[in-house]
Protein 1
Amino acid sequence: DIQMTQSPASLSASLGETVTIECRASEDIYNGLAWYQQKPGKSPQLLIYNANSLHTGVPSRFSGSGSGTQYSLKINSLQSEDVASYFCQQYYDYPWTFGGGTKLELK
Amino acid sequence: EVQLVESGGGLVKPGSSLKLSCVASGFTFSSYGMHWIRQAPKKGLEWIALIYYDSSNKYYADSVKGRFTISRDNSKNTLYLEMNSLRSEDTAMYYCAKKGDTYGWYFDFWGPGTMVTVSS
């Protein structure tokens, strides 16, 4: 199975700050990567697919980048509604696997 | 608007069975692969099962293979997960999710989930 390692596990940032979350795959996943946001008590929502494509309706302050085994999610100008947990997921190979998550809080 | 609504969760004893349902609306259900994904309390996400749009292929995580069965009824826009021989480690929120519109097995819409608790 492809292992997905996310960092950091938790993050504290101020409003308006730029935040970056990293995800490393145990092997090349050829941009088969998605990012999800999960707010407390809610189900996950798709933010990014194919490593850098923004899902419909997602604010443009979210962006994804990377290739090979290293990927990142960037949030520009952090807003209060961005407080959530964030998960990466690889879909290059079965079984589809998730990173352990990053919990983002406001400083 | 895409909507997915799960049901059928509850408190059951180890070794028992349970069948979850997920009713879909707002898209052509019969054209999309569908998944079940679970999340143990305060834990991360675990993909557990996939069924193709026409039920021609089904895939399972090793942790549930041989115990869980995914199925669908396209005439009822409904996805199912039959769970047998339940264990305490199956305790989780269970989500159904729709395959994304483009190439690739990502999940573009999720239901709110149904909680399954396995405890004596």
Protein 2
Amino acid sequence: AQSVTQLGSHVSVSEGALVLLRCNYSSSVPPYLFWYVQYPNQGLQLLLKYTSAATLVKGINGFEAEFKKSETSFHLTKPSAHMSDAAEYFCAVSEYRGSNYKLTFGKGTLLTVNP
Amino acid sequence: NAGVTQTPKFQVLKTGQSMTLQCAQDMNHNSMYWYRQDPGMGLRLIYYSASEGTTDKGEVPNGYNVSRLNKREFSLRLESAAPSQTSVYFCASTLKAYNEQFFGPGTRLTVL
């Protein structure tokens, strides 16, 4: 079964510092991978996705993620944190199981940005 | 385009009451989904509809029923609400099942 692990339920950084949010997945085949962001009291918004093209994926708001097959990882990074990046981030994996694709979410990482 | 819309935004029920959460999308998507979000649990799939006329159980279907009314609309019904169903419910849709899903703003449900 597919599983997604996000290391660290809460990450705190200073404004201007590097943001690194970790995501590892378990899968026997290369999956489709996604990062979503959720701002308070809102729905989820897609940040970026990996669909077996380039291993380094650029998303919105300066975020990017690198797919590393050997490490089964898809970590999210941003060189310089901004106050507006404070939100909860979810890694998700889509894999064909049974008769359809299923999307499995990690438990989320809450990012706090300190001034 | 409004994207994915959900009604109501907030709801308080008493144990045993019933209600239906409504979801509609205007993106001509084939697949639609219902999730619940609880603190520290991420999002868990309740039911999904791969295409108009089909529905299937997800990870946590007990206590819920769904109806894919047409291609645009996918409703979630709680027949007899329980406090364990207090949660935030999200509807999502996608054109092709392996693609990214688009989410509605959510319904915050409290069952007393």
